[in-house]
């Protein structure tokens, strides 16, 4: 990774270079005119070198940058943000350190959990450089080092965690990763702000098995709830039976109400136990059948008389 040594291009030193060069050309023209003379050429060359040195000495760091200045190979100072000057050739700037909060994604592929299940885990690291000097001098390629430290820490945590805990306790894993990575990167002047586990991918076969397990668990809960409901209903029926055993009138009214509801919903036929008929005092089987059909004995007698009268008229 070389992005930490790159800097946003600034046109201000280039502008200074051309301004000094134009000033030199203008002075040569004023002093020596349009004729090509050795003195004029040397003046232009001198101003060109001056412009080159001054433009090389001018550096500008953005608000979020720190420049690491080395003088003849040894650490000199941290410069920026804003405009600053260095000694050309003697001073060099090998690193421009970004001190903003930076996000880095890292993954662990086909890593075995504590219960030997291969998983793919994606996570995001939020970190910030607190000491640019340590980040530049104490570790080579600090961004790459942070990435590798994050991946190894993630693999270590996965190997110590059960799959169920990983799927249910992502916040706990994130906090554990933050502590581990922060301990590893603190000597480099880097502070880990937070770690977020984005996704945990498991094999498709295991997904199907877990789905079937969840369905079976829900079915078991449904059966338990249904059995408990039936038990409660049976208890209520037992309480009702006790009430009816001590109160025959209530039982008789309840039986009449049940018969009425049956006739209202199904007016063609109703099957009633003979013991219920005796308790309700409705008479024999013919009577209850007629009642079911909406025909009483008196109406049957009238119907027979009407049929006999019609037959007599026909005979006459």
Describe the model:
With 316 residues, the chain is of the alpha+beta class. The protein folds into four domains: 3-95, no CATH class; 102-202, Band 7 domain (Tetrahydropterin Synthase, Chain A), CATH 3.30.479.30; 204-246; 254-296, no CATH class. The protein contains eleven helices and eight strands. The strands form three sheets. It has a three-stranded antiparallel β-sheet with strand order 3-2-5. The chain has a three-stranded antiparallel β-sheet with strand order 6-7-8. A two-stranded antiparallel sheet has the order 1-4. A hairpin with a 5-residue loop joins strand 6 (102-112) and strand 7. Helix 1 runs antiparallel to helix 2 (38-57) and helix 4 (142-159) crosses helix 6 (170-185). The longest helix is centred in the C-terminal third of the chain and has 42 residues, at 204-245. The protein is elongated. The chain starts with 11 loop residues before the first helix and ends with a helix. Mean pLDDT is 79; it is low at 284-288.
The CATH topology of the largest domain is given as Tetrahydropterin Synthase, Chain A
Residue-averaged pLDDT: 79
- Unreliably modeled segments: 284-288
The CATH architecture of the largest domain would be: 2-Layer Sandwich
Number of helices: 11
SSE class: alpha+beta
CATH class of the largest domain, named Alpha Beta
3D shape: elongated
List keywords for this structure.
single chain; alpha+beta; Tetrahydropterin Synthase, Chain A; three-stranded antiparallel beta sheet; 11 helices; about 60% helix
